[in-house]
Structure formats: structure tokens, C-alpha cells
């Protein structure tokens, strides 16, 4: 059966494989599909974000996604409350009509829910059930909210990027940040299952510095040019923070529920202070936009300084470590400081990360019957 205009309505809190199957089924059977994202104001995943996730996943030209705030109670036995919901849904669909685009009446409602037939009747449409027992994709929004890691395989890349717990390993030069970041990610990858995809993101600032120094040496014709000879600008630190954040997001989209980051935008703020002696509002904005959930500060204690040709020198190391500690405490960022030999540092990092993962994810409760 072919339909002119199919309708899919849901909270998509968050969207999962079952939702995508529902929309794709409607798209295959209809000339036009309207997807209404009906979110209540008490829910903790923004409506705009859910809408963007669905638009990314469903790029079919005849599928349109409409965001709707629906704060009506949930009572499937109340005609009055049913009417309130339908008014909200129709208002969302009317947005398209308000742009001068003709939207044909809904003639099919696609749903996996028990309320599907009633919803279809209120749109004077037929109900098309799509895998009500959820045999194809045994998942629900409730199950995902209760334990995202257990249902990770059912989540699309942008949802994974949003939900991944991000641990940033930060510290002064030559304090073992890269070594620890690599080892921490490897520890969780070795657990197998969903954790096998655990990744770490290298420090982009180091790559940027290597390229900047090489370019300066070529321009000056002086291979002995040193770091202190470089002139830095705020825009470069902003670029470093943005590029590193983009690398993080790319890794989080294809990784496990945990992402390990070798430095982050917060660390770039501190390095901006080191080289320019001023605050970095643009870099701070990146730090505020990209969420991290735990910071692991690598102490210089017990770590011999190694000059690899791209480091300031041992004299600055203790000062930088102190600035990291001060800023972490001043900002109230959840963090630990690791000291001692590598094995001791890794054990402390694993314990703190395990505690973070045990806390799980927090979603506010949606409106329920």
C-alpha cells in the first residue's frame, strides 16, 4: 500500500535504532513523511538536539522533521488530553504550511506503540503498525536512558558522541600525559564487548606546534630556530582548541561509551596564559561547549624531564603543573592528580574512571501516564 502522507510521532528521548527503523519504514511506503519530535520541557535532552540527530540520520528528501513542545499530561483515557496532544502535533505540521508549502492531509500513522490506532483515528488516517513487539530492534527509549552502555549498539553516531563519557588527561610537559592516555584507553578496550571500541584522542596542539616551528624554520632559513623564537596569537590557540574538539567528536561518534582525551580546551586555556599571559575567552567558549566529565592531572613528581625538541624546559614544568592544579580547583572541575610510577598512575586513573562510569548517565524523567 502506498500513502501520500505518513506521520511518525515520538519523544525520541534519545533516538535509537527502533526509531530509525520506524521512520525508514514510513519513508519506503509514503510520498511524504512528517516526523514530529514531541518533547516536554521537563526532559533533559534539548529538543533542538534531538531534531538535529534525526535530520542527520534521515536525509531522504521526502522526510521532514518537526520539533514540537508538548507539555500536556499523559492520559490515554482522556479525550480532553488526547485533543491537547493532537493540537500540539498539528501545530508542528502547520509550520510547513505557514511557509506556503502545501501539506496533504495525513493518511497513515506509523507506530510501534499501543496508542497508535487511537492516534491514527484522531488524524482520520489508517494505522500502520511497525514491529510492535520490537523483535527487530529490542530497545526502547526507557531502556537506553536506564543504561546507555548496554544499548550502545542501537545508538547512532551523533547520539554516541553526545553520551560518551569524556576523560581528559592533562598536565605540564614531560609528565606522562600521552603515555597515560594511551594506556587508559587500552585498558578499557581490553575489556572487550562494547568497550573494545574505546579510543584516545592525541593532543592536536603538539601537531600544530610541530608544523608552526617547521614553517618558521623554513621561512627564516634557520633550522636552529627554537620555540622561544615563535610568536603566538590568540587565534592559533582557538584553532587548536576547535580542531582538537573536532577530533574528539569524530572519535566519540565511532567509539565506546568512554573517550580518553590527551589534553582538551581547558588545557589550551592554561597554555594560552603561559605564552600570551592573558585570558582566552574564545578558547573558554570551546571548553564550555565541549563536555568533559573527569580530568586526570599528571604530576611531574617522579617523572624525569625529557627534552624532545618541542618542550619549553624543565624550569617551567613545576609552575605549569601548579597552574593546572589551581585552575581545576578554582573551577570546581572533577579531577584527580596521579603521582608515582606508571603502574600506580594507571591504577588510580582506572579507579577514578570506573567510578565515573558507575555513576552512569542522568536523564530527567519524561511525562508518563
What characteristics describe this protein?
Rossmann-like_a/b/a_fold, P-loop_NTPase, 5-stranded parallel beta sheet, 10 strands, Transcriptional regulator, 369 residues, catalytic activity, NadR/Ttd14_AAA_dom, Rossmann fold, alpha/beta
Topology, element by element:
Elements (H helix, E strand, L loop, with lengths): L2 E8 L6 H13 E10 L7 H11 L5 E7 L9 H19 L10 E4 L4 H7 L3 E4 L11 H6 L10 H7 L1 E7 L5 H13 L9 E3 L2 H17 L13 H21 L3 E5 L2 H12 L4 H9 L4 E5 L15 H18 L3 E4 L3 H18 L10
Parallel strand pairs: 1-2, 1-4, 2-3, 4-5, 6-8, 6-9, 7-8, 9-10
Helix pairs in contact: 6-9, 7-13, 9-10, 9-11, 10-11, 10-12
Structure description:
The protein is built from 13 helices and 10 strands. It is of the alpha/beta class. It has 2 domains: 141 residues, Rossmann fold (3-Layer(aba) Sandwich); 196 residues, P-loop containing nucleotide triphosphate hydrolases (Rossmann fold, 3-Layer(aba) Sandwich). The strands form 2 sheets. It has a 5-stranded parallel sheet, sandwiched between helices. The protein has a 5-stranded parallel sheet with strand order 7-8-6-9-10, sandwiched between helices. Helix 1 links the parallel strand 1 and strand 2. Helix 9 packs antiparallel against helix 10, helix 10 packs antiparallel against helix 11 and helix 10 crosses helix 12. The model has no long low-confidence stretch (mean pLDDT 94).
Amino acid at each position: 500500500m502506498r500513502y501520500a502522507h505518513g506521520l511518525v510521532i515520538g519523544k525520541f528521548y534519545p533516538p535509537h535504532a527502533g526509531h530509525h527503523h520506524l521512520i525508514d519504514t514510513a519513508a519506503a511506503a509514503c510520498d511524504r513523511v512528517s516526523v514530529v519530535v514531541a518533547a516536554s520541557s521537563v526532559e533533559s535532552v534539548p529538543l533542538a538536539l534531538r531534531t538535529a540527530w534525526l535530520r542527520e540520520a534521515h536525509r531522504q528528501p521526502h522526510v521532514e522533521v518537526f520539533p514540537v513542545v508538548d507539555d500536556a499530561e499523559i492520559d490515554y483515557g482522556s479525550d480532553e488530553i488526547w485533543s491537547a496532544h493532537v493540537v500540539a502535533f498539528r501545530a508542528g505540521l502547520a509550520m510547513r504550511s505557514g511557509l506556503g508549502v502545501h501539506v496533504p492531509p495525513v493518511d497513515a500513522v506509523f507506530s510501534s506503540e499501543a496508542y497508535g490506532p487511537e492516534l491514527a483515528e484522531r488524524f482520520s488516517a489508517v494505522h500502520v503498525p511497525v514491529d510492535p513487539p520490537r523483535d527487530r530492534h529490542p530497545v526502547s527509549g526507557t531502556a537506553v536512558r536506564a543504561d546507555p552502555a548496554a544499548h550502545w549498539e542501537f545508538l547512532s553516531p551523533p547520539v554516541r558522541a553526545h553520551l560518551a563519557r569524556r576523560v581528559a588527561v592533562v598536565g605540564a610537559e614531560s609528565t606522562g600525559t600521552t603515555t597515560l592516555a594511551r594506556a587508559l584507553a587500552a585498558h578499557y578496550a581490553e575489556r572487550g564487548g562494547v568497550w573494545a571500541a574505546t579510543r584516545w584522542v592525541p593532543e592536536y596542539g603538539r601537531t600544530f606546534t610541530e608544523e608552526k616551528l617547521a614553517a618558521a624554520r623554513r621561512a627564516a632559513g634557520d633550522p636552529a630556530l627554537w620555540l622561544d623564537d615563535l610568536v603566538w596569537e590568540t587565534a592559533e590557540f582557538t584553532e587548536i582548541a576547535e580542531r582538537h574538539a573536532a577530533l574528539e567528536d569524530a572519535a566519540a561518534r565511532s567509539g565506546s561509551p568512554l573517550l580518553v582525551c590527551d589534553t582538551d580546551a581547558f588545557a589550551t586555556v592554561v597554555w594560552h596564559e603561559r605564552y600570551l599571559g592573558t585570558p582566552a575567552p574564545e578558547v573558554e567558549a570551546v571548553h564550555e561547549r565541549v563536555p568533559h566529565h573527569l580530568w586526570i592531572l599528571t604530576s611531574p613528581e617522579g617523572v624525569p624531564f625529557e627534552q624532545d625538541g618541542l618542550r619549553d624546559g624543565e624550569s617551567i614544568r613545576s609552575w605549569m603543573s601548579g597552574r593546572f592544579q589551581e585552575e581545576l580547583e578554582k573551577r570546581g572541575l572533577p579531577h584527580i592528580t596521579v603521582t608515582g610510577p606508571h603502574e600506580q598512575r594507571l591504577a588510580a586513573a582506572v579507579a577514578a574512571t570506573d567510578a565515573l562510569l558507575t555513576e552512569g548517565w542522568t536523564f530527567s524523567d519524561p511525562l508518563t501516564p
